[in-house]
Design brief:
Elements lengths: L7 H27 L2 E2 L5 H11 L4 H20 L12 H16 L8 H25 L14 H11 L15 E2 L7 H29 L10
Parallel strand pairs: 1-2
Length: 227
């Protein structure tokens, strides 16, 4: 009886291809964070979503975490050792945790490949990134402002979110970044969501094509001999 359920060997090949693609995507994500790009138009969120969808276990979390730590150290040096990129800055915990949540959201895409599902996952990822990173700004205001701007209560938190929405600078102040581009674009959350949707769609499509191509080149099993 023929079924569409992949064999263990096929699943192993699919995972290996996913890991290889994630490594390539990780290199691309690192470069994209360094070269001029629209604010928050990053592929790290998409890398995390793809990892959650196609890579099992701890490797799905390790790839985006490694990319962020490595690229942050490069940006730290290129920006004249801006404390915002230092591993000692409190924002790093929230930013890195956000990409771990991206991976968790990506698990939902394991059995879903539609553009609607990817769009929803990308939107959810962008929203939680906004909430976590700006919660960090509100919580650790002395690291961001000379004088605290928001009260340490729910009203102050909501005011912080409202003030951040038109700009959504993300994990650091890109306006001061030496490679900043299009920093006058408001509502840059759009760049985040678009980047997540675009790159996740590309990674899932490329992976599917690679799996299909490898499957097509597998040798056909020999026919069983007649008894």
């Amino acid at each position: 009886m023929n079924t569409d359920k992949p064999t263990a060997e096929q699943e192993t090949k699919s995972r290996r291809l996913a890991v290889g693609l994630a490594v390539v995507a990780g290199i691309f994500a690192t470069v994209l964070r360094i070269v001029p790009h629209p604010t928050n138009f990053s592929s790290v969120g998409a890398l995390s979503l793809f990892g959650g969808a196609r890579i099992s276990g701890w490797q799905a979390y390790l790839v985006p975490l490694g990319v962020m730590i490595f690229s942050d150290q490069i940006l730290w040096a290129l920006s004249g050792f801006d404390f915002n990129y230092s591993l000692g800055h409190p924002s790093r915990f929230f930013v890195y945790a956000s990409f771990m949540i991206y991976v968790w959201i990506g698990r939902w895409l394991q059995a879903r490949n539609s553009i609607g599902a990817v769009a929803l996952a990308g939107t959810l990822g962008g929203l939680q990134f906004f909430v976590l990173t700006n919660f960090c700004v509100w919580l650790f205001q002395p690291f961001y402002f000379t004088v605290p701007l928001y009260s340490q209560d729910l009203n102050g938190l909501l005011m912080c979110f409202a003030a951040a929405l038109p700009f959504y600078q993300g994990d650091t102040n890109f306006a001061a970044h030496p490679f900043a581009l299009l920093t006058d674009f408001k509502l840059t959350i759009v760049w985040t969501v678009l980047g997540d949707i675009l790159f996740t769609s590309i990674y899932l499509l490329v992976h599917a094509k690679l799996v299909q191509r490898v499957g097509a080149t597998d040798p056909m099993p020999a026919p069983a001999a007649n008894a």
